[in-house]
Amino acid sequence: MKAKNKKEMDLYEIMNVSRSASQQDIERAYEIAQSSYEKNSLAHYTLMDEDQRKNALEKIEKAYRILSDPEERRKYDQNQTKKKSEVYHNAYFRSSTEKLFIEDGDKTLVRVIKNIKKKFS
């Protein structure tokens, strides 16, 4: 499993399956993940301590619980799409605003400040 910076890992990444994975693919991935992190596995002896192993198993259980239930998976996918949409919107707004200031320079900045002052006057 790849670690993400301070963000919750994507459930598909945890299960190591694609977003278009079938129910069989998810079941197979779950079995592999479970066996990889069981008490006597190589990962347990060489890569992680008991708490890390339990934490990984909890993430796997959560991912499987959501991805194996069609309704929960649909909700999860919609939520992920919404989050990505918000990120793209914010990036677009930021780049559009920056472009506006770069093209028009100080004139645009002065106009924006005047408009803000009018709204709050």
Please give a structural write-up.
It is a single chain. Helix 2 (23-36) runs antiparallel to helix 4 (50-67). This protein has a domain at 1-68: DnaJ domain (Helix Hairpins), CATH 1.10.287.110. The chain is elongated and about 70 Å long. It is mainly α and 121 residues long. 76% of the residues lie in helices and 0% in strands. The longest helix is centred in the C-terminal third of the chain and has 35 residues, at 70-104. The protein has six helices and no strands. The model is unreliable at 1-6 (pLDDT under 50). The protein has helices spanning 11-15, 23-36, 42-46, 50-67, 70-104, 106-120.
Shape: elongated
In percent, how helical is the residue content?
A: over 70%
Strand proportion: under 5%
Mean residue pLDDT: 75
Report the CATH architecture of the domain at 1-68.
Orthogonal Bundle
List the helices and strands and how they pair.
Layout: H1 11-15, H2 23-36, H3 42-46, H4 50-67, H5 70-104, H6 106-120
Task: Describe, in short, the structure shown.
The protein is mainly α and 121 residues long. Helices cover 76% and strands 0% of the residues.
Task: Provide the descriptors you would attach to this structure in a database record.
121 residues; mainly alpha; Helix Hairpins; 6 helices; elongated
